[in-house]
Design a protein that fits this description.
- With about 120 residues, the chain is mainly alpha-helical.
- It has one domain.
- Helices cover about 50% and strands about 5% of the residues.
- It contains three helices and two strands.
- It has helices at about 1-50, 65-70, 80; strands spanning about 100, 110.
- The chain has a two-stranded antiparallel sheet with strand order 1-2.
- A hairpin with an 8-residue loop joins β1 (about 100) and β2.
- The longest helix has about 50 residues, at about 1-50.
- It is elongated, with a radius of gyration of 20 Å.
- Bound molecules: zinc ion (ZN).
- Zinc ion binds near residues 93, 95, 97, 110 and 117.
- Zinc ion binds near residues 33, 95 and 112.
Length: about 120
Amino acid sequence: MELMIVVAVIGMLAAIALPSFMKAREKTQATICIKMQREMEGAKAQAAFENKWNSSSSFGSLGGDYQTVLASYIKTGSALGKTLASGAIRPICPLGFSIYWKSIGQPVNCQSGLASHTP
Ligand SMILES: [Zn+2]
């Protein structure tokens, strides 16, 4: 009988705590995704400066491998760089979605499309 009460109490506590844990986890993932996007913007700005790209540069005219060039501006040892699997050209958000570089005049964005993943 006491064991059943203990199990019931633990179950109730878990039911109360789990939603807030899930919420905290989602918030952390969104924060990481936005941080990654800011680092990508920095890499993009540096690449644009060094390669003399401007907002009127279309990536089509840059030879098509601009994402490879952009990816080379991310430090391989960084948390962001570690999300680039070997040969990948786009970092991966903590939810497993790609983060798109977009063109020079447009901000990078998370494929998840979630408002919480939009800076
Ligand atoms: Zn994301």
